[in-house]
């Protein structure tokens, strides 16, 4: 089980020396319990205590990186069973499958689509993650050529899906230096697969018929030097996939079976319900999700779902405070004041662009709170508006002194006028009404 802050504190030297960068040993213990510092940061721990604290405070689901540099993504590192307890940190990688039975043109067409597809939502780029190359013919030569076709088109993270070590090595000979995920080791050939994982420094997916066997195989692979593992829980039954994924996460988070404390791999094609399996994989602990090419309409839904699940529920997505331009605003352009909650910003920006009015947006720092919440909490105040006008040089940008504030901030209008000397117009509560508001009120 993970140690609590007071349990950790009892093991510390209690010198309050500040050499770890924290003011007291108790502060260090609290941060160590929440994963914000490492046991190695304390210079006075003896080796046994450091080893104990390191094992009990590192994430129960091991972090695994697939790929290198910009062509990589990280999975695992999770510390809770339910998102609302804290957050999920590393979103699952969705890998599009190509087969070594496809011709090179077909492979490259699929790879180019994955490479080029980009969806922007609330200021964040959403993409599919990479390519899974599947051996269907069992030919090392064909598998190697399929990997070559992928490499010729894009620098993307890869999964090499071949059970035969000889076939697997043919793919690794092409892209092994980019650390693809090797899939998959079983009890029959884990020694050969572990050797390949060690030789190329790659993460290794493993699979077994049940969780007990999977835990034993995990221990064997770790002993063989392949310590960066991914657990394949693929099944023909979606019900079984969900049960197994939930059980593995429970074993990991409780630390009752550390050998199951690894990210989860799911081949969504196996269930016969690939869309449902992909949704369940995103919602229920999947880390590497393999799927056939997803239609663009469905792709948007999957990417948005993943973004929503892997957004920290305790930390709103924020926009950097400052001045933002819509169109080509001149000195007579209207200035809209709003908060730095990203959804508020992008909603207002979209409607201003649609209105056809060149405008300025003054984004103030309300710590990511929405307008109504920021007003109620006192985060949006007349002094903040005054200071922001000065900080971002707004008087130098326009030839007027009129500020449009959100409708939900109407109670602050008089105080903002008194504090800043600017005239305040109370805008609509709904950003969809800004075009009509500007036509009637702005001259």
TL;DR?
The strands form five sheets. Strands 3-6-7-8-9-10-11-12 form an eight-stranded parallel beta barrel, surrounded by seven helices. It has a three-stranded mixed beta sheet with strand order 13-15-14, sandwiched between helices. The chain has 443 residues and is α/β, with parallel strands linked by helices. The chain has 16 helices and 17 strands.
Architecture overview:
This protein has 443 residues and is α/β, with parallel strands linked by helices. It has three domains: 5-57, Orthogonal Bundle (3-methyladenine DNA Glycosylase II, Chain A, domain 3); 64-309, Dihydropteroate synthase-like (TIM Barrel); 322-441, Rossmann fold (3-Layer(aba) Sandwich). 40% of the residues lie in helices and 18% in strands. It has helices at 5-11, 25-33, 47-57, 104-116, 140-153, 165-175, 190-200, 211-223, 238-254, 274-283, 296-309, 342-355, 371-377, 382-391, 413-420, 434-441, and strands at residues 64-68, 71-75, 93-99, 119-121, 124-126, 130-134, 158-161, 181-185, 204-206, 229-232, 264-267, 286-291, 322-326, 335-339, 359-364, 402-405, 423-426. Strands 3-6-7-8-9-10-11-12 form an eight-stranded parallel beta barrel, surrounded by seven helices. Helix 6 runs parallel beside helix 7 (190-200) and helix 10 packs parallel to helix 11 (296-309). The chain is globular, with a radius of gyration of 27 Å. The N and C termini lie far apart (66 Å). The mean pLDDT is 92.
